Amino acid sequence: MDKYVACYVALGFLGMATCTMAENSLGNVGFSGSILTVADVFQQGTLRNTQFDQALNLNINVTFNAQLTAQAQLQGGPGGGFIGFNGPGLSVSQLYVAYAPTVTDTWTLGAFAQPLGQSASRLSINADGGNNAFLINSLAYSALMTAVGNLNTLGVGWQRNGEAWTWNAALSNGPGVTAANPAATFEGLLNMQVQPGDGPWVFSGTYMQSDAGPSGNAGNTFSMWMADVSFQDDANPWTGIAYIGQFSYNDGNATTSDGVGIASAELAYDFTPALYVSARWSGWLPTDSDGNGVGVSAGIPNPGYAVAHDAYTVVTDQRIDRYQIGVGQYWTSVVLAKAEVVADIYQHGEDVVAVIGSLNFFF
Questions:
Q1: Residue 338 in 3-state DSSP?
Q2: Where on the phi/psi map is residue 83: left (φ > 0), alpha (ψ -120 to 50), or beta?
Q3: What are the tens digits of pLDDT across the range 26-71?
Q4: C-alpha to C-alpha distances, 327 to 56, 275, 303, 324, nearest whole angstrom
Q5: I need a labelling partner for 317 at 20 to 30 A (CA). Which of 29, 40, 57, 332 fits?
């Protein structure tokens, strides 16, 4: 069915256009997106993965009038790569209608990105790495999606913007973009962001509770909180963002440990408007970190890049530290080149070191 996705989306938007044409003559329909080309080497013990990879994001944007807009995003790639891009084929990642009845309020209906902290707007989303100083996301966001995935969910969202603050709330089926919800489980999210005095510092807090775990399994629950702070000033070449928080993967077993601490700190320095260097540390800190493979919630994932091979297995009751150093340069306004080194350091297992080069094209 994947090969028909683009046709289905186009027909859906054509149907919406037809229904509204008498009122506003459709307004504007536009296309945008990104293409990403990657070369990478991942080394884990004696295991090496070396490959070229490719990814595509295609956005279809519709403006019905000043208050009503819509977007569909298709993501894809050849598939089979080690980094984790979507593929093979295309899939629908976002499909939503946004209604802004006032200048301060916006309602979103459909499949949209969850506002999980300030870093949610600074992620690599499949082929779009333009908002991220790196290609690979931090460990907490890798656990919520993939290292280059998305935070999308299917439901209803609300945003209110004030002079110095922003509120976000969402109610959805749960993690992932799917209408399947046989156990009638839901996810609720609340986020608040404050920018005192319209200055360079921004503070944010997020809480989310889901009746199903990130895998969508009924009987499990997932909750998280996060506090973050960022600094950005056009007159200062330094930018930074940091977060701390806690994930809880309740697998329904009272004898297992459910908690994981999360943290990250990132700095970037702009030599010119087109050239920067960056460094980031992120930590994945399970409460049970003895590495014996027992007593830990079955819902806790391995957000790092280590994989099982030969007789080696990856246990989830261990700390992971991810260190990243990168450099990026805009060759033109629509071409971004990046190079980075990523090291996933496992407390009780094999470490992974990767060297990644990428070219990002925007249209």
A1: strand
A2: alpha
A3: 559 999 999 999 999 999 999 999 999 999 999 999 999 999 999 9
A4: 22, 8, 23, 10
A5: 40
